[in-house]
Every structure is written in structure tokens, then in C-alpha cells.
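Much of the work behind modern protein science is quiet bookkeeping, done one molecule at a time. Below is the pair of lines this work produces for a single protein:

***
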Amino acid sequence: MSTSTPQLDIDTGRLDGASRARLFTVLAVIVLFSEIAPMQYTIVAAALQKIAPTFPGIGANINWAIIVFGLIGAAASPLIGKMSDVWGKKRMFLVCGALFVIGCVLDATTSNWGVFLFGRCLQATAIATAVIAYGLIRDLMPRKFVPLGLGITATGLGVSSIAGPLLGGFLVDNYSWRAIFWCLAGFTLLMLPLIWLIVPESKLRVTERIDIVGAALLSGGATLTLIYVDKGHDWGWSRPTTLAWLIAGIALLVLFVVVEKRVSTPIMDMKLLFHPRVALVLAGALFASLQIGIVSYAIAYMAQTPDEATVTAGVQQGSLAKVQAMTGQPLPPEAVQVTLDPGYTYGSGYTLLEFALRIALLGSVVTMICGALAGLLARRIGARIPLVIALAIFAPSGVALALLPHTTTVFLVVNSIFSIGFGFYYAAMPILMVEAVPQEQQGISLGMLGVMQSMGVAIGLAIVTAFLHTTAMQAMISVGGQQTPPTPIPDIFGDHGYELGFWLCAIASTVALILAVIMRHGRTPATGGIAH
């Protein structure tokens, strides 16, 4: 990867002679289609509290609806990125869309947890649409429009960030959570013919074999490791049968690196992976994405949880009804005393639509604006400064969420500030990657970025799930002075589990900030991909 001489431009089918109307029409269709993945994440992460009761006994493991999406997306992104380089980016765009539709239909029609997760696995291919979109923009847009196009693609045109929460809230509140997946399938089916008719295919092709073994080792190792992180508390962290999952996962990941160094066409070019221009960006993406996964999930879940008084009253009423049914004698309410262990201070009891309107909407607007702004800044001063700004916002946001009261006002203010960084981060990262690698390696390099971001989200959610398991709620019920056995309260967790997650956010983002500060890459104006 020589840095002395910029690479000569390769004919990729760039639309240099096209009118602005044609350019922005193509860009708009690409961006709208690539919003499938963030739109589903925005809606599904916010709706987990409503989805959980459909799968009794799942508890905090409901987070695997998001974890498995990120995990499979991480494994699929480099593979699909390489396929897009070999077989065509537009073609793989359409394939990912078709798989996403099938996954949505499965989730909309099942009440089986295993089938639901399989549907989420199929939907995870949508993560790769962002990888493909970045490549299409680099291949098709005139150079001067590439940084802005990447910034807009990273944060969208408002469908996922603004319409997503409102639409999801309306559907869940007026129909059911299943309507979310029917709507996502319908949106994708509408977009597929637009992609076919409007977006030209990139001419860039790389003649290589597809490394299926590498993808299998990566996904297998990551899956086993995350299972250990998620289930270690339940199974016992140090038990040999539990450690076996971790050891097997690490062994597969080590084998992945060994295999990738030896095969002629690796799914990940190890030299490219460990080059400072690429390695620092990828490491920063991994750590920063921990916070993105945790904050997006936790705020939505906490705001939709009923407050402690409401839950306590519900348990008391249920206990009264149960005793009266058994004895046939009415009891005064004061005869049943209920306390929650460990107790909690959050909970607004919002519907999904109320959460969208009162908390999520403002942050979504801020994210969309800041993504475009970061793209413009990258053209003038480089993408590193927007990334530093983003991470300098992320770290104190995590501290604030850990220390401040868990009220609607705090969530609204902190989430809105965090969204400034969110927009800057998602715009800066693909620009940095596009500036770091030659054109013929763009698919796999952006696939690597997708891996790190998806893995970061999955790891963050797996760790916070483990934290929540330690603070699972129980009702301590006393009937007529007689203590009954503790009664588990599903889907509600103590403050401490969330607060540990927020502290993890602050630590991870601080590490990412340090990496961004020392980064030498991205300090000059973005070129649209001709620097290397």
C-alpha cells in the first residue's frame, strides 16, 4: 500500500457527464435502499420491550434479537463486500434486499424464538447494503460529490432516523410488533425495482475466489465468544463447560487469522487489515460501536418500562386476586405487602410512539443534519476532526447516563447531544476508509468496517445483557405477615445493570477517542478516494 503516489483512476462507470438531477436521483435511491438496515435497527431496538412478552422465559436474552443481527451482519459484510467486487455491487444490492424480505416475512408470522432469530439472521444481510452503497457512491459519483454522498448515506435522508421511530411507534401502538416486519418487507419490495431501473452497475470487478472458509471461521469464533459473554453469569464464568465456549471461540478466531494469511484470496487482506491507516479506523469503530449499541437499546427499553409504583401495584393486585380465589374470602389491600428487589428508579411506561415523539425524534433530526455537515467538513478539513468531535461527545454522554437520574428529561437532553456525535461518527468512518485504500479493495475494506461496527454493537449488547442478568427483578410478597417465595418479574431489571453498561460506554468511547487523536490518517481534505 504505497503512499508515495496516488493510484491512477480506474474506469468504474463514474457519472461525470451526468446532470445534477440524474446524480441526485441515483444518490437518493442508493441512500433510501441502504436505510433498510438502520431503519430496522431503530424500530426493532426500540420495540424490544413490546416484543419480549411474545416469547415467554426469554428475559434479558431478548437482546439477542439485536445481537444476532449484528453478529451475522459482521460475518456477512466482508463476504458480501468481496462478492460485490467480484460479481457486481448492484447485483448484490438486490440479493441482500431479497434475503431481507424473506427474513421479515418469517418474523412477522412466527411465535417460535428460534425461527424468529433465523429471520433476524436473514435480515442481517441488510447491514451489507451500507457497505455496497459506499462502494457504489465511490464508483459512480463524481469525485467532488463522494465525501458528501458518503456522509448522507451514513445518516440517511430521514426515513430511518425520523420516519422510522414514528412509523414503528404507530404500528406497534395501533396494531402489533409484527406490523413492523410487514412494513419493512413492503418498503424493501418497493425499493427493489427502483434500484433495478435507476442505479447503474459499477464497472469495477476484481477477479478472485470467494473465501467461504474465512467467513465461517470468523462468524463461528465470534458467535461462540459472544455466547460465553452473554451466558457466563447464568452458567458460571469459570466452569469448564462454560469456558469451553470461550476457548473454542478464541481458537476459531486465531485459526481465522492463520488461514487468512495463507490463502491466496483471503476474505480479509491481513496486510491491509493491519496497516495503520486501516487498523486505527477499525479499532475505533469497534470501541465506539459498543456505546451505539448499548445507548440505542437501553434508553428505549428503560423509557417504555412501567415505573416501580405501577409494577408494585400490579403485583399486589395479582396477589390479592390469587389469594381470594384460593380462600374465597376478600382481603383488604393492606394485607398484601410487595417490595421489589433490587428495585429501580427509571420507567416512564411510554408506548413506542410516545417514546419516538418525546425522546427519539429530536435526536434523529440532529443525527441526519450532522451526518451531512460532517461530509462537508471532511471535504474541507478531512474526516479525522469530525471523528474526534464525535468521540469527544460519546464519552461524557456515557458518564452522564450513568450518573444522572433516569428521567425523560435526562434521556431527551443526553440523547440529543449524543446524536450530534452519532451523525459525525457515522459520516466520518466510511470517508476515512474510502480515503485509506485503493479502489479495487474498497468492497472488502468497507466490509471490514461493517464487521467492526456490527461486532461492537453485538459485544456491547452481550455485555450489558450479562449485567442485566445480575439485576433481574423479583417481587418479595408478604400475605398477612407470611413471606412467600420470591416471584420473578420478567423483562424488568435494576438500575445497576444499566449503569454498568453506561460506564462501559464511557470507557470504550474514551479508548476510541485516544485512537482518533493519535491517528495520522484523515488530516487532509477528503479527495473522494484518489489518495491511495
User: Anything to note?
Assistant: The radius of gyration is 24 Å. Residues 1-8 have pLDDT under 50 and may be disordered.
